[in-house]
Design goal:
The chain has 187 residues and is mainly β. The chain has 1 helix and 10 strands, in the order αββββββββββ. Keywords: Signal.
Length: 187
């Protein structure tokens, strides 16, 4: 009986050690270079030109190692996106705050570099704007792709492009487009 209990405890300890090596949790933050693609915005008969804004993102990361060359990386991020609009000297910024949930397939090209691809679902949490443009959609779906670079065992850098596939506004044909550069730390 004592041997059975000892073997069970030993197997549980080995299993938990192996699980700890297969899943890493961490945090990340970085800069967004965001814009909105699609039709121009018209307010009171005036056309406004779009321009990109610089904003930020931050959140939690998990990496689930499935094989030596492949893992899945779900994230939970707060990300600000949008654009700046200008017409005849009048300029305002439309900044949308999203809870973004990308789930990326990570193809490890070697121990340092990975190719990251996958879908992203985003839920609108806040809207900060200087003028009443158009009603924003509360859900957005997009595709994310980029590269990851492991600097050390726990510190990483990532570059990513996120292309919105659904409209960001109920009344205008605009989609979010974001280039993200981030740094993170896994535990």
């Amino acid at each position: 009986m004592k041997k059975t209990i000892l073997v069970t405890v030993l197997l549980l300890a080995i299993s938990s050690t192996m699980q700890a090596q297969l899943v890493k949790f961490g945090i990340k933050a970085g800069l967004n270079y965001a814009n909105q693609t699609g039709s121009d915005i018209t307010i009171n008969g005036s056309n406004y030109n779009k321009d990109a804004i610089t904003s930020y993102h931050a959140g939690l990361v998990a990496e689930i190692k499935l094989t030596d060359g492949f893992s899945v990386q779900p994230e939970l991020l707060y990300s600000t996106q949008g654009a700046s609009y200008e017409n005849a000297g009048e300029e305002f910024k439309n900044e949308l705050g999203y809870l973004s949930i990308p789930v990326l397939a990570k193809f490890h090209l070697n121990k340092t570099v990975s190719l990251d691809l996958g879908p992203q679902a985003s839920f609108l949490l806040s809207e900060r704007k200087n003028a009443n443009i158009k009603d924003p959609e509360t859900f957005e779906f997009g595709l994310a792709g980029g590269l990851g670079l492991n600097i050390t065992k726990n510190f990483f850098l990532q570059g990513r492009y996120v292309l919105g596939l659904t409209e960001a506004s109920k009344d205008a044909e605009v989609k979010n487009s974001v280039v993200q550069v981030s740094a993170g730390f896994t535990f």
